[in-house]
Amino acid sequence: MKIAEINISKKKGTVKTPVETGELIVDFGFCGDAHAASGSAKQVSILSVSSINKMREELGDKITGGVFGENLDLEGIENSELPVGKKIVFSSGAELEVTEIGKKCHSGCEIFKITGKCIMPLKGVFCRVVKGGKVKKGDVFNVL
């Protein structure tokens, strides 16, 4: 299991931009990301690569990493394998705890305008940062 993509955005409700590395800050989220906030249960958002690929089959090439506003695209695991309470521990030592599954969408969301359909309300996995550290594309992780 590994990180396929890391995505960051400066504004909520927008497509995130892929980056090679990111810094997770304890009880905050990714440094520089619009969704990062102290005390929030949704500091980091995750989708499995297989979920993204299913949407790509349905909606075509407009589906790329970060298009649903997710921070991490994880390979080798399904969203359903990340229930509330599970911990995701990266090879760097950074650690996330799953806090919520799904969310209410923003009205007038740029993401929905691009894709016409969003999987975050049902499939999005949201976490808080338990241990900070840098992560990079290709880093491996374990689920505890």
**What's the number of domains?**
1
Order of helices and strands: EEEEEHEEEHHEEE
Biggest β-sheet: count, sense, barrel?
A: 8 strands, mixed
Detail the poorly predicted runs. Answer: none
Terminal CA distance: 13 Å
For the record, what CATH class applies?
Mainly Beta
* Mean of all residue-level pLDDT scores: 90
Question: Mind explaining what this structure looks like?
Answer:
This protein is α+β, with helices and mostly antiparallel strands and 144 residues long. The protein contains three helices and eleven strands, in the order E-E-E-E-E-H-E-E-E-H-H-E-E-E. The chain has an eight-stranded mixed sheet with strand order 2-1-6-5-9-8-7-11. A three-stranded antiparallel sheet has the order 4-3-10, with no helix packed on it. The longest helix has 11 residues, at 49-59. It is globular and about 35 Å long. The mean pLDDT is 90.
Mind sketching the topology for me?
Layout: E1 2-8, E2 17-19, E3 21-25, E4 29-30, E5 44-48, H1 49-59, E6 72-75, E7 87-90, E8 95-101, H2 110-115, H3 120-123, E9 125-131, E10 133-136, E11 141-143
Parallel strand pairs: 5-6
Antiparallel strand pairs: 1-2, 1-6, 3-4, 3-10, 5-9, 7-8, 7-11, 8-9
Give a quick rundown of the structure:
By secondary structure, the protein is an alpha+beta fold. It is built from three helices and eleven strands.
